[in-house]
Design a protein that fits this description.
alpha+beta, Beta-Lactamase, Heat Shock Protein 90, 3 domains, five-stranded antiparallel sheet, five-stranded mixed sheet, about 55% helix, rod-shaped, binds adenosine-5'-triphosphate, binds magnesium ion
Amino acid sequence: MIRRLRRAYRGMRLGTRLALGLGVLSLVVFAVVGTALTTYMRDYLSAQLDTTLAQGQVAQSKSIADYGTLSGKKYYSWYYAVYDVADGKPTLRRPEDPGDLPEDVDDFTSLALAQTTAHTELLRTEQLRGQGEYRLRACEVEPGVVLVSAAPMADIEDTVGQLITIQAVTFGLALLALVVLGRGMLRRGLKPLSDMAHTARDITSHDLTDSDRLPVRHDARGGGPEVEELRTAFNTMLEHIDDSLAVRAEAEQRLRRFVADASHELRTPLMSVRGYADLFQYAAANAPEERDRHLARLRAEAARMGFLLDDLLLLARLDAAEVETPLRLAEADLVELVEQAADAFRVTHGDHPLTVAPGPSALSLRLDPQRVRQVLDNLLTNAAMHTPPGTPVSVAVSLANDTAQVRIADAGPGIPPADRERVFDRFYRVDKARSRDRGGSGLGLAVAQSLIRAHGGRIDLTSEPGATVFTVTVPLAVGALTNP
Ligand code: ATP
Ligand code: MG
């Protein structure tokens, strides 16, 4: 039974539970107040009855002493017994009115006897046979005469009984109102919490693998500062989940795109290799003079595939740079590296006039010379590959705020604003068809950016028709040696 009650209590809503708890507490308070009130009332009424008894006896004593009779001041259903005491023994006088005495006067006689020995007024509560409870008072009227009066206590009990009934009814009603109204109020007060629980449930039913943002927020108002605080925390948590999901979705999408692009990029040279291999086989049998040409093309495609794989491998290693950095750092002169890159550029891209702006004569830094040279070559090659022949290219080394900067600029057509953000993405090419014709895979800038980031620096791009500038910024390592 108790277990079933406990289970039922556990299954109750919080509002009902609190209301019930409040009810039990009120019940205890009502019981204490009721008991105190009833006890006080009973004591007060008893004391009043004693006073009335005493006052009545004073008047009657006077009447007995003066006239020998019990005249006047008689109350309905009260009893009066007069005893003559001789030799310490009370003898009941014949009553003037038979209604003055009850059937059984033993209690009266015993009180009168007690009075004669005590010589003072005595009060006692006795159960008179067939009459109920009575309050008895004995006093000495004059020497040798004792008066015993008895007043019924039924009135007091009636009044106290009524008081208890009234209390029980009013307290009961108050308790009912408290529990019912309290439950309603508590439910209303707790509604924001249950709304929040609904929101949380909605999230559970929402497919989190979806890249969309969570469609739910808890946007109700009110409920007090605590609820407001909880709501804010709840919404902040949702915001956080949203952000994490967005980041994850974005990363997943980028990875998917990367894998798709990489497969696609690898497939193109692979198809060419196959095609040239077939041609080579055909030429070996039918046109031997064509053979070497096909073999050379085959080698070139294989080499292109090799470069692509090298780039991919390098990017993968740079992505996992926290585990093992793919850089071989050494003390190297940045100005010298730029000059070497410029010389190589002049040899390979003679149709693009190159100027090296005057700057520091030497700038010794701690970096990976081969990788930095690779970045410079990438940027310079871009300036030649993606601009018409004859476009001037310039390169400048400078020092600014604890950083070394290399600016590679060309006067080509520039990169449209919409593409500027994305040219550093893997496999991104502004004009896909043309770039591919020139042998570009779209990995050059991605590799350059990853390499410079691995050095703690960054590459910035500004571009407008006639002025496309890539600025490579690397921090001067601690203890860098500079010779201006
Ligand atoms: P890869 O360098 O891998 O051989 P790519 O040169 O096409 O191929 P990125 O170096 O990453 O790839 O360059 C991305 C794209 O940015 C290029 O395809 C080109 O459209 C554009 N771009 C880069 N540099 C310049 C530039 N100096 N002027 C105009 N467009 C440029
Ligand atoms: Mg490039």
